[in-house]
């Protein structure tokens, strides 16, 4: 089906000319001679909105703001005879996909339209609808994800905490032939070794204290589908050996059982750790790494794709408003500007937390820049995820025992209830030198 474009301009001659050009290039074009008329015509069947900036009545940016509230995934290209760098920068920061000046170059127009259509999940299918993105870096990554989704190769998704690794894994599953079967996720760093083994492989009745019933593990739950192993870098070494055996033999052995069970699952794993470094430190098996890392997809931090911040922010406002504060309808342009200028060390997760907070506390229908400034000034109050909180506690604890023992590793390890080897691994993990604490 040819992509559908809604074209808006109060200049009837330009509207006719652009319409003819686009229809000649294979697009289905609907014309509107005002922003008000465009709002009457627009629906979720359009793939792109192209609008003039300067029009009688509602202008192009006001139309864009209305459309973003109604259809946040719809890309918008603005054309104007009054183009300027500040105007273009402002429009882009607010989430406008493209900004073209009159007279419009035909090739540039078609290239912009092609890029805009490639950026929308509507043109790429429902498989990636939960990933809100306009940036070229993410679009290239999603194109690669869609390409490898059709095969059964193992995928390792890397990237900083909060960058959306599970969403990417789920998107790959949705685009794969396995999409009608389960997508099952587990955080390998959130459970102790025995419980993690039982969750993955299952157990028989009486296999260990508390095993009062037979339990099918997640490999069996995901049979025919995809198993997502989050934070694979935190998996204990003994379980790494068992996981490797499952990948090689395509069968599992529940805890306490002498029989194996065949399984058919695709493995997608993720980590924020540097697994190459972990292999050098003997914290991660090299053979398992190469089994998991057939294809690597690296998610960039949010700071490297600031153009994604406005559509993400609007999406999170809508989501948070439904849950906490229905009177909130939108976020101001000035607030979006504040968000676009921030560093976001916690990435998309941190952005969502900030938006949820300001939406819940907002006393006005439009979230103001002052509310965002206050929230950004108190970013340390944003609740970290479990792994981040645990890592921070570990580091503070290690520093404390090293201070108490003045850098004596034997005494510090004894206080911590760890052997010296494990204690040294913890120090290395948190980049601490015992010598720096000697009196």
Write out key terms for the chains shown.
single chain; 439 residues; alpha/beta; Rossmann fold; Helicase, Ruva Protein, domain 3; 4 domains; five-stranded parallel beta sheet; 20 helices
Number of strands: 14
- Relative helix content: 40-55%
Q: Spell out the CATH superfamily of the largest domain.
A: P-loop containing nucleotide triphosphate hydrolases
CATH class membership of the largest domain: Alpha Beta
Number of domains: 4
- Number of H- or I-type helical stretches: 20
Mass-distribution shape: globular
Protein name: Two-component system response regulator GlrR
GO molecular function: ATP binding; sequence-specific DNA binding
Domain Sigma-54 factor interaction: 131-360
InterPro entries: AAA+_ATPase, AAA_lid_NorR, CheY-like_superfamily, Homeodomain-like_sf, HTH_Fis, P-loop_NTPase, Sig_transdc_resp-reg_receiver, Sigma_54_int
Can you offer a commentary on this structure?
- The chain is α/β, with parallel strands linked by helices.
- Helices cover 47% and strands 13% of the residues.
- The chain has 20 helices and 14 strands.
- A hairpin with an 8-residue loop joins strand 9 and strand 10.
- The termini are far apart.
- GO terms for molecular function: ATP binding; sequence-specific DNA binding.
- This is Two-component system response regulator GlrR.
- One of its GO terms (biological process) is regulation of DNA-templated transcription.
């Amino acid at each position: 089906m040819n992509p559908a474009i809604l074209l808006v301009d109060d200049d009837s001659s330009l509207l006719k000319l652009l319409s003819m050009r686009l229809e000649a290039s294979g697009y289905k074009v609907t014309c509107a001679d005002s922003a008000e008329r465009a709002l009457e015509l627009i629906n979720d069947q359009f793939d792109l909105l192209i609008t003039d900036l300067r029009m009688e009545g509602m202008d192009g940016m006001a139309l864009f703001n209305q459309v973003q509230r109604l259809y946040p995934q719809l890309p918008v290209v603005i054309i104007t005879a009054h183009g300027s760098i500040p105007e273009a920068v402002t429009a882009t920061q607010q989430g406008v996909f493209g900004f073209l000046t009159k007279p419009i170059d035909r090739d540039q127009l078609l290239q912009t339209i092609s890029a805009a259509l490639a950026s929308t999940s509507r043109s790429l299918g429902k498989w990636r609808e939960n990933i809100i993105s306009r940036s070229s870096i993410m679009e290239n990554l999603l194109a690669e994800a869609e390409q490898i989704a059709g095969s059964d190769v193992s995928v390792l998704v890397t990237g900083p905490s909060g960058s959306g690794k599970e969403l990417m894994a789920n998107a790959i599953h949705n685009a794969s032939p396995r999409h009608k079967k389960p997508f099952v996720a587990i955080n390998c760093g959130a459970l102790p070794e025995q419980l993690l083994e039982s969750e993955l492989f299952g157990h028989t009745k009486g296999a260990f204290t508390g095993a009062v019933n037979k339990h099918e593990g997640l490999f069996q739950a995901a049979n025919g589908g995809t198993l997502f192993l989050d934070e694979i870098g935190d998996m204990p070494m003994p379980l790494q050996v068992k996981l490797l055996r499952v990948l090689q033999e395509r069968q599992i052995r529940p805890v306490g059982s002498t029989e194996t069970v065949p399984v058919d699952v695709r493995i997608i794993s993720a980590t924020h750790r540097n697994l190459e470094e972990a292999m050098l430190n003997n914290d991660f098996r090299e053979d398992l790494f190469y089994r998991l890392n057939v294809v690597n997809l690296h998610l960039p931090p949010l700071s490297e794709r600031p153009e994604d911040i406005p559509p993400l922010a609007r999406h999170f406002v809508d989501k948070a408003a439904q849950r906490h504060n229905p009177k909130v309808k939108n976020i101001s342009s000035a607030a979006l500007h504040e968000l676009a200028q921030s560093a976001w060390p916690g990435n998309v997760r941190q952005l969502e937390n900030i938006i949820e907070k300001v939406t819940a506390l907002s006393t006005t229908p439009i979230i103001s820049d002052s509310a965002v400034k206050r929230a950004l000034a108190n970013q340390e109050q944003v609740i970290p995820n479990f792994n981040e909180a645990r890592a921070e506690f570990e580091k503070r604890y290690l520093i404390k025992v090293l201070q108490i023992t003045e850098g004596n590793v034997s005494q510090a390890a004894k206080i911590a209830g760890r052997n010296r080897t494990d204690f040294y691994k913890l120090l290395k993990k948190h980049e601490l030198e015992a010598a720096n604490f000697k009196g």
